[in-house]
Amino acid sequence: MPTHSTPPPKPTHPLGDTNVGTTLRPGQKGTRELLKSYGDQLVCVRYRYDKARGKRYKTVELIIDEQDWMPGVAIPADKRLPITVGYGETELREQIKAAGGFWNAEKRAWILSYRTILRMGLENRIIDEELGM
To answer: What is the pLDDT of residues 22-36, one digit of tens each?
Structure first.
């Protein structure tokens, strides 16, 4: 019989339950001193309000790391995609058929849902039709 336990309490933040009132961009009135301190790292300054405590907080958002990044493409899980399977990979072909995949002679590729491709670990076999691969 399953036991039901209560979830652990959410950690409380020192600011409590606050609402953002104003967001200022670097250079606006109220940010100049912080801009001197943080320079190009300063993204914005926010004023947060805690009604329960009757407090106003001034917070900053800073850039602390920068790395190159390529945005991914969101692929719907049920989208059918072509994948490449070698001629001699008969066992894999049978697994693909059992998972609902089928051969598309025109594309000369196996077609399988993206969800199943991920589940089977075949992401590296997806044929990028836009690149002609």
So the answer is: 899 999 998 999 999
* Alpha-carbon gap, residue 82 to 87, rounded angstroms: 15
Question: CB-based contacts of 129: which residues, under 8 Å, 6+ apart?
Answer: 82
Residue 95 CA to residue 25 CA, distance in Å, equals: 55
Residue 47 CB-density burial (10 A; 0-12 exposed, 13-18 middle, 19+ buried): middle
pTM of the complete model: 0.47
Taking the alpha carbons at both ends of the chain, their separation in whole angstroms is 52
Look at 72 and 107; give whichever has higher pLDDT.
Answer: 107
d(CA 54, CA 69): 41
Domain boundaries, the chain: 19-62, 80-125
Contacts of 9 by beta carbon, 8 Å cutoff, 6+ apart: none
